[in-house]
């Protein structure tokens, strides 16, 4: 079973600052299957990043995803355990709950416990 | 635009069953999977299972096998999830999501969610 651990649980920052959110997998995973979602209170999750570093349609370029030690391009078999979501120049609307997710495209899907980004 | 619209809130007693719906619009229903995810109060997201609307495959998360049934009606572009033997700990918001079939996969968009409250 793959477990995703997000840190920190809560991150308190101010508008204009940079946020760095971490997601660590319990074992090495194919980076193509790692995604990030944003969830605001009372709303459904919204896709931000898929394939570890690809921004979803309509997502500001202030949001970026990385897999530690791996360049931002797909190479067959690239895998890792440490993933980061970075949000530059925080806007008031960025303060929300962020989830990382591993989904292998068939029968295995798991989420991290979430990181709350607080003002 | 692409959207998933879910059925309204439900209040059920322990031991009862509930059947939730998720109606898709704005895209070809059979070209994407539908997944179900729930979120209990104050908790993270928990994956429940997925269905290929062509009917070729259904996968249930281990925690829900035997208690959850996923179906689709392609004539109305609607997916359904029935949960049986409800317990108080099943109180949660239940989401459906459209999921890309190819690599890399993604969940987008999500339905607005259905609150299911299980209480005696």
Molecular structure report:
The complex is a heterodimer of chains A (119) and B (120). Chain A is mainly β and 119 residues long. Chain A has strands at residues 4-7, 10-12, 19-30, 34-39, 46-50, 54-55, 63-67, 79-87, 97-103, 109-111, 115-118. Chain A has no helices and eleven strands. In chain A, strands 2, 4, 5, 6, 9, 10 and 11 form a seven-stranded mixed β-sheet that branches. Chain A has a four-stranded antiparallel β-sheet with strand order 1-3-8-7, with no helix packed on it. The model of chain A has no long low-confidence stretch (mean pLDDT 93). By secondary structure, chain B is an all-beta fold. In chain B, the strands form two sheets. In chain B, strands 2, 4, 5, 6, 9, 10 and 11 form a seven-stranded mixed β-sheet that branches. A four-stranded antiparallel β-sheet of chain B has the order 1-3-8-7, with no helix packed on it. Chain B is globular, with a radius of gyration of 14 Å. At the A-B interface, β5, β9 and β10 of A face β5 and β10 of B.
Derived from helix and strand composition plus strand pairing, the structural class of chain A reads mainly beta
* Average pLDDT taken over every residue of chain B: 96
Largest interface: A-B, 25 and 22 residues
Question: Topology as H/E string of chain B?
Answer: EEEEEEEEEEE
* Strand segment count of chain B: 11
Helix content of chain B: under 10%
Principal-axis shape of chain A equals globular
Count the strands of chain A? 11
The low-confidence runs of chain A, each spanning 5 or more residues with pLDDT under 50, are none
Give the percentage of residues in beta strands of chain B.
over 45%
What is the assembly state of the chains in this entry?
A: heterodimer
**Roughly how many Å apart are the termini of chain A?**
34 Å
The best one-word shape of chain B is: globular
What is the count of helical runs of chain A? 0
Task: List the secondary-structure elements of chain A in sequence, H or E.
Answer: EEEEEEEEEEE
Outline the biggest β-sheet of chain A: 7 strands, mixed
Low-confidence stretches of chain B at least 5 residues in length (pLDDT < 50)?
none
Instruction: Please bin the fraction of helical residues of chain A.
Output: under 10%
Average pLDDT taken over every residue of chain A: 93
- Termini separation of chain B comes to 40 Å
């Amino acid at each position: 079973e793959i477990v995703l651990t997000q840190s920190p649980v809560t991150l308190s920052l101010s508008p204009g600052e940079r946020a760095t959110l971490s997601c660590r997998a319990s074992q090495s995973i194919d980076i193509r299957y790692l995604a990030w979602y944003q969830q605001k209170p009372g709303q459904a999750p919204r896709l931000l990043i898929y394939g570890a570093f690809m921004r979803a349609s309509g997502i500001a370029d202030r949001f970026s995803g990385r897999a530690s030690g791996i360049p931002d391009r797909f190479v067959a078999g690239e895998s890792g355990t440490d993933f980061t979501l970075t949000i530059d120049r925080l806007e008031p609307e960025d303060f929300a709950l962020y989830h990382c997710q591993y989904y292998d495209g068939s029968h295995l899907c798991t989420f991290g416990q979430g990181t709350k980004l607080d003002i | 635009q692409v959207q998933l619209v879910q059925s309204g809130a439900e209040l059920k007693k322990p031991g009862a069953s509930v059947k939730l719906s998720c109606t898709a619009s704005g895209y070809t229903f059979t070209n994407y999977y539908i997944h179900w995810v729930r979120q209990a109060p104050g908790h993270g997201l928990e994956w429940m299972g997925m269905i290929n609307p062509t009917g070729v495959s259904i996968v249930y998360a281990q925690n829900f096998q035997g208690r959850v049934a996923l179906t689709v009606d392609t004539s109305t572009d609607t997916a359904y999830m029935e949960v049986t033997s409800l317990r108080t700990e099943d109180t949660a918001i239940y989401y459906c999501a459209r999921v890309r079939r190819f690599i890399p996969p993604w969940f987008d968009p999500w339905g607005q969610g259905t609150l299911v409250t299980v209480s005696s």
